[in-house]
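Input (ABC transporter permease subunit):
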Amino acid sequence: MSRTSAGAGVRPAPWRTGAGRLAAGGGLLAAVALLPWLSGTDPALTVLRARAADQDPTPAQLAAVREELGLDQGAFTHFAQWLGGLPRGDAGTSWVSGEPVLPQVATAFTVSLTLMLGALVVTVVVAALVCARTLYLGSRRRLRKARAGTGAAVLAALPKFLLASLLATVCGVWLGWFPSSGWEGPASMVLPALALGVPSGAMIGGLLDRDLPAAFHEPWARTWHAFGFPPGLTARNAVRRTLPGVLPQLLPTVVALVGGAVAVEKIFNVPGLGRLALDAAMTQDLPPLQTAALVLVLLGVAAGALVQALRRGLLGPALRAGALPALHAPALPHRRSPRLVAGVCAAALLALVVAGLLRDPLYVDTAARLLPPSAAHPLGTDSLGRDLLARLGHGALRTAGVAFAVTAVCALTGLLLGMSARVGLGLTEVVATLPAVLAGLLTTAVTGPSVWGAACAVCLVGWTPYAAQTAALLEQERASGHVLASVVIGADRPYLLRRHLLPAVLPALLRNALLRLPTTVLVLASLGFLGLGEQPPTPEWGRLLSENQPYAELAPWTVLGPAGALVLLSVLAVSAAASAGGGRRTKAIRVR
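Output:
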């Protein structure tokens, strides 16, 4: 088998990828079109109440609305009429306001796109800061100890809606540096961009920081250092070598900055596309909801194509020729023992859970509302006088259990679809455009608001980062020389999968899953914040954050407890991944 056939034969044909995108996009838009009928409520009733909230509709009024909107024609007739108007630039009119949809969506998309670009700048800056130490030391051959990534894990575990509330209060209200509400100019973009970009940048930077030591360990880096090449040039090429493996993670991040920032848009009163889609879904205003979903699908496909082009441009001819060397991380000792850090975090979480389980999480004492931490209430009380330590402890198993289950399902689904490059690429790009909030609305329409409905919603969209990572790593591994050598000597597909491909993918996938575990908790929390997840009075961590967020300024301890528990969980997951990776290393090598 030639190098060309070995390297290029595994890529999906362009027409297959296009067909996958078309099928997945059509299925998504059809599901959105069915939302009013899936919900089990009368769309005419919802629309009429959205037009006049205080009005008690009569059967005659409902019949008039049905006739006006043509609801008796069915979902697919509406869907076909909406599709037929798109080539003429007609996306219909809003069922609630009666105004044309396209100008509304265009304005909201412009706002969201501007916010996304600002958040993307923050993401890149934060990712660069996370990797700065490794880049500086590695380019000078002074990287002698590895990092567990606890700092990045702490930043990535920050709830975006909680960070948004903190920034709006401190930088907007107290200090008056930037507007805390509305969208009036470039200054209005700063605080929302920070709230969205800091956790995303920590996530991307943490993944990149783990791969950089392997690039600095390659022979070319040692040779360049021996010949006196500038450290900056070495650092740039190390980033170019490792960035293709991380770039696919930008696709769901970019789309999330546009369509999934609903909670942040609500806090800052930003009229973005995600908020428009949420409002339209809540009122079952189908034309703007379908148009917003279409814009997100097109954005995801364009972003996916750009990411693939950048990846292949960075990897260069070696990818096409099947001569790409595999990255092997050096056996560097950690600055501090990951097992020790993991043990401390586990002990702290266990102590919180055990202490909380001994208390009643549902006991209401209105005379003890919003009390600060004390001997009687170590974490204080909430707005109803309930003990926060009790609610934190009783919600731990439920929160961690659901998050672990959702993460495991998403990682396994992403692995399987990422290995099916011909089917998974287009599907990944399209599903990555679906915000978890919209997926939550679709599942809630069937299951009702519940923790399992929220978990299903996250599973519907949460597999895309793992699928993108798996596909990228497999493409690079198949283009490596040792895989080509195995093919030449007659290795079959099961052997390649067992001995080469899975060992190259699974460790990175596991690290990504552990790093994203707190993010899963936060997505579930965001759904609870919007009323689509766990319902009161269940003491779930995301629910604790969402119901106490309005009191963050008056009583900050009400959110510090669950936020601190999320940080501990994040550091525990990252430290466990680092200790597992360290356990496979037999000895440290000396880096000259």
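Confidence is low (pLDDT under 50) at residues 1-10, 582-592.
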